[in-house]
């Protein structure tokens, strides 16, 4: 149900944050952004779009295999202030063409950018019958550029709402953010969601007909659009980050499932459990390393799924990219139209999968990965069909493909998500259960996840391994990497009354934190509170 709701639009900050204390904590930032906008662009903003980052509590690298995950939005967010330019500039001025953007960022290292989308037109100007078929925006996927994420959000708005005769307004924008970039807290998804929302709001499209449905855009549809938009930056992501950023509610984690459709249900977190994020300070740029890391894993899991389907006699179309989730669904006779099978049944099927994975190992016993040639042969497809289905849309770089390890991680991690969720639900249903026993049980599942990410999915790194070990030594019940890994943040489960001591111990023992104090330290290691999802603030005239 949560995914079917409209995007909230507020005119009052206290309504947005829901309580006075939190409002006061954040008001200064919002005011500063609005004032700075006025200084730079000579008028008040019309809207500020907000999208939070997220911490994934459990369920790593399984969203793109269509398995459910369990993240929570964090309070750290991206804010984008905007105002249309048409009211103040005559059309003859430069940068006034339809949809042109002047984008500034409060962080001085991110320089001012000016860009305009290029329409592909059809029809005759003389007869006043020009139709725009498609909009194009140059997005540089080869290097990390802040405005690429703004453009990615814009792309979907242009191509979903402005094909035809309607034209987007020229707009000035000012961005600020507190989600550390490249840290696994999803600053990229927060940027893309905030940008998508901001371009919808400034063009008056939040209330209008979404893709001919006759209805305004829902949270679920915004998630879908933001996922498509983020692909423009070159990462074939699953939908976890965008869903968490858009649909989250305060005080709960969100169980997000993707198959057969996107569903999100709040999962209460046990009393006394606090999740602490710690940044390893290894910056992992997913877009730049995608062909060796993220996108390679996407291809490995897809190839593994086809080979397993073939081995298990599961139906799969010649050109279909069946996922590991669909393999178990079809194996269990799940009917797509009836929704997801009961989670108890899913657990049962998952438990059996471990015994089926041998087929993914190479014949030579001295290595675990298969070569490209072996993988194609195992898939039962011809080389050209394999390339067409699995490699034509993505660039990967590898000599061996670790199908066995990847599938083993995915199925076991999917099971851990269900276990984690069940522990939370059971604790909420029986308030008399021992809080410590609940936290210990959750911590154990998190530690198993870290081991699996490190050894099977190989998405950890020495610094993340060290940081999770130090966290356990400092009293955490569980600690794991969060997000894509290869750098970025860890999330540790700590008992509420031990948070301060925990943070102190980790900051004294993790080398890269030496010398950090005060605000600098709280930038890299901090307790999180599950926050609300994305929204729009509208300034009244
Ligand atoms: P991060 O790196 O935290 O943005 C990425 C993907 C997620 C998910 C995780 C791994 C994007 C935008 N996000 O998260 O969808 O696959 O890795 O669990 O690519």
Automatic annotation (TrEMBL):
Q: What is its EC number?
A: 2.7.1.6
For this chain, one GO molecular function annotation is: galactokinase activity
Q: Which chain regions cross the lipid bilayer?
A: none
List residues of the GHMP kinase C-terminal domain.
Answer: 439-510
Its annotated pathway?
Answer: Carbohydrate metabolism; galactose metabolism
Residues in Galactokinase N-terminal domain copies: 35-84
Q: What are the alphabetically sorted keywords of the record?
A: ATP-binding, Kinase, Nucleotide-binding, Transferase
> Which Gene3D superfamilies does the annotation name?
1.20.1440.340, 3.30.230.10, 3.30.70.3170
Q: Where is the GHMP kinase N-terminal domain?
A: 163-246
Q: Which reaction does it catalyse?
A: alpha-D-galactose + ATP = alpha-D-galactose 1-phosphate + ADP + H(+)
Enzyme class (EC, first level): transferase
What InterPro entries has UniProt attached to this entry?
Answer: Galactokinase (IPR000705), Galactokinase_CS (IPR019741), GalKase_N (IPR019539), GHMP_kinase_C_dom (IPR013750), GHMP_kinase_C_sf (IPR036554), GHMP_kinase_N_dom (IPR006204), GHMP_knse_ATP-bd_CS (IPR006203), Mevalonate/galactokinase (IPR006206)
Q: Spell out the family assignment given in the record's similarity comment.
A: Belongs to the GHMP kinase family. GalK subfamily.
Check the record and name the NCBIfam families matching this protein: gal_kin
Q: What is this protein called?
A: Galactokinase
Q: Which species? A: Marasmiellus scandens
Taxonomic classification: Eukaryota, Fungi, Dikarya, Basidiomycota, Agaricomycotina
Q: Which gene encodes it?
A: GAL1
């Amino acid at each position: 149900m949560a995914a079917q709701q409209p995007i909230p639009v507020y005119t009052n900050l206290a309504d947005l944050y829901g309580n006075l204390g939190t409002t006061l904590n954040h008001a200064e930032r919002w005011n500063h952004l609005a004032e700075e906008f006025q200084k730079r662009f000579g008028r008040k903003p019309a809207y500020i779009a907000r999208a939070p980052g997220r911490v994934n509590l459990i369920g790593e690298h399984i969203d793109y295999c269509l398995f459910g995950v369990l993240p929570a939005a964090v309070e750290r967010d991206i804010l984008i202030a905007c105002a249309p330019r048409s009211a103040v500039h005559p059309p003859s001025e430069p940068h006034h063409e339809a949809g042109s953007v002047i984008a500034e960022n409060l962080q001085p290292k991110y320089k001012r950018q000016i860009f305009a989308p290029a329409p592909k037109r059809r029809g005759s100007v003389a007869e006043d019958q020009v139709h725009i078929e498609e909009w194009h925006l140059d997005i540089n996927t080869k290097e990390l550029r802040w405005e690429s994420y703004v453009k990615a959000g814009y792309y979907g708005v242009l191509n979903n709402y402005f094909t035809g005769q309607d034209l987007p307004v020229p707009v000035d924008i000012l961005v600020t953010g507190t989600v550390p970039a490249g840290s696994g807290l999803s600053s990229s998804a927060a940027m893309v969601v905030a940008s998508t929302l901001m371009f919808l709001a400034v063009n008056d499209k939040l209330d209008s007909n979404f893709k001919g449905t006759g209805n305004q855009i829902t949270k679920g549809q915004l998630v879908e659009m933001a996922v498509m938009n983020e692909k423009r930056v070159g990462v074939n992501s699953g939908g976890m980050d965008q869903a968490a950023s858009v649909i989250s509610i305060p005080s709960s984690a969100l169980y997000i499932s993707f198959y057969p459709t996107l569903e999100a249900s709040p999962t209460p977190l046990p009393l006394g459990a606090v999740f602490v994020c710690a940044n390893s300070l290894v910056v992992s740029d997913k877009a730049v390393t995608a062909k060796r890391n993220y996108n390679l894993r996407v291809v490995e899991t897809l190839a593994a799924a086809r080979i397993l389907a073939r081995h298990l006699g599961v139906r799969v179309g010649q050109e279909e990219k069946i996922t590991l989730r669909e393999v178990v669904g079809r194996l269990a006779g799940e009917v797509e139209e009836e929704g997801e099978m009961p989670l108890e049944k899913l657990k049962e099927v998952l438990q059996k999968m471990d015994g089926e994975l041998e087929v993914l190992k190479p014949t030579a016993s001295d290595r675990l990965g298969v070569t490209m040639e072996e993988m194609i042969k195992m898939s039962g497809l011809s080389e050209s069909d394999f390339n067409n289905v699995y490699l034509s849309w993505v660039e990967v770089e590898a000599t061996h493909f670790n199908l066995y390890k990847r599938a083993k991680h995915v199925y076991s991690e999917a099971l851990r998500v269900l276990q984690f969720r069940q522990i939370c639900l059971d604790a909420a249903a029986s308030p008399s259960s021992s809080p410590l026993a609940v936290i210990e049980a959750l911590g154990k599942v998190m530690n198993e996840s870290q081991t699996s990410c490190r050894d099977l999915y190989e998405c950890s790194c020495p610094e993340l391994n060290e940081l999770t070990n130090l966290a356990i030594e400092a009293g955490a019940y569980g600690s794991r990497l969060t997000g894509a890994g290869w750098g970025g943040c860890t999330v540790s489960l700590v008992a509420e009354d031990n948070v301060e001591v925990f943070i102190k111990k980790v900051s004294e023992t993790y080398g890269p934190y030496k010398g950090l104090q005060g605000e600098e330290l709280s930038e890299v290691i901090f307790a999180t509170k599950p926050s609300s999802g994305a929204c729009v603030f509208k300034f009244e005239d």
